[in-house]
Amino acid sequence: MKDIVVAHREAKNMSDKVALGVVRLLRWGTDLATGYKHEAEIAKAQKDSKNAKPFQMTERKWMVRFIFLETVAGVPGMVGGMLRHLRSLRRMRRDNGWYDPSSLPRCHL
């Protein structure tokens, strides 16, 4: 676990910057909702305040975080499935379970 290195690519163009901003916003919201604090933030808070007690994630806090993250991770698949279902209803034809990425709406940044 300690051998894992976080790799980060620098944002070069506008779409990279927007994507990075959205990911950071979602990460911040997830951390806020689950009560998670990153080790660097903990070390800084302890250095600033000598009487600060160390932050610890309990089993319950980890479970809340995992369930929250898994819930959010299921949203894109659910949206894709619902779009496919609604398209099938709109055309009144079965798609026989075929997934065609070109048929989904595109978002260009």
Detail the poorly predicted runs.
Answer: none
Number of strands: 0
For the CA atoms, what is the radius of gyration? 21 Å
The percentage helix is: 55-70%
- Percent range for β-strand residues: under 5%
Please state the average pLDDT score. Answer: 77
Give the termini separation: 36 Å
Q: How do the SSEs run, as a string of H and E?
A: HHHH
| Helix/strand class | mainly alpha
Largest sheet: none
Discrete helix count: 4
| Shape estimate | elongated
Task: Tell me what you see in this structure.
- The chain is mostly helical and 109 residues long.
- It has helices at residues 14-34, 39-48, 59-73, 75-91.
- It has a domain at 11-56.
- It is built from 4 helices and no strands.
- It is elongated and about 65 Å long.
- The relative contact order is 0.09.
Helix and strand layout, with pairings?
Blueprint: H1 14-34, H2 39-48, H3 59-73, H4 75-91
Helix pairs in contact: 1-3
Question: Which properties best describe this structure?
Answer:
4 helices, mainly alpha, 109 residues
Compact description:
This protein has 109 residues and is mostly helical. 58% of the residues lie in helices and 0% in strands. The longest helix has 21 residues, at 14-34.
